[in-house]
Request: fold
Amino acid sequence: MISRLWGQPSVANKDANVPLVLLHGLLGDSGDWQPVIDRLPAIRCITLDLPSHGQYRDFNVNDFEQSHQWLVAELASRNIERYLLAGYSLGGRLALYHASREPAGLRGLLLENCNPGLPASERAARIQHDEQWARRFEQEPLADVLADWYRQGVFADLDDAARASQIASRLGNDGQGIATMLRATSLGKQPDLAPWLMASQLPVTWVSGKRDHKFHQLACQLANQDRRINHLVLDGGHNLHAHQPDNFARLLAEWVNQQEETSHD
Reply:
């Protein structure tokens, strides 16, 4: 639990040169993080649009390795050599894969409600599941697909008003691009990165929402298997940073400061 974070955090890294890089989820864009960033004036935050999203809606990748190379190039273009990385949902999975390639400059990883990977026996079914959604994104009106997308169990905490607002905010996406990204980064094509997590020395914090039962259970299982994973819990659903920007900003500020203190020990 993160009740210990509710006090005003000391932002010790005000003059530090290690930025916090933030990756959004499927159908989002870099602006999704703005309410959180507005509450972190002392932390240097860098948000990126994922391939097939936002300013990169015409740039696609074919697999996780290409997404890793894309992120490496984005960081290099900004002359970022040391950094902290946080990602939500799909952004978290891409961040985790990137971390598993062990880039020299990565100092810490924070993952919000994401999946470390499936057993090999479950991957074919997941690829088929994601292919069905991809075809819908390609062929049907985006509003119709989104109406069903946000009725999936993982979004069960959304009421009608929140669901309508979420759909409206996602209508600027290109269905073809989303289909391409969904195929490229299907959970069925992602390596199971849990073994890497167990072996890695990288500081990893996993954030889950109690009302996102699937991903909260996943996070609990990982933390039980590896006590080095710092598991923090918020009383919310899948998209914690969007629905609880104050709490999430406090969590991030505390986490960034902890990484800075550890790096200077």
Summary: The first strand starts at residue 20 and ends at 23.
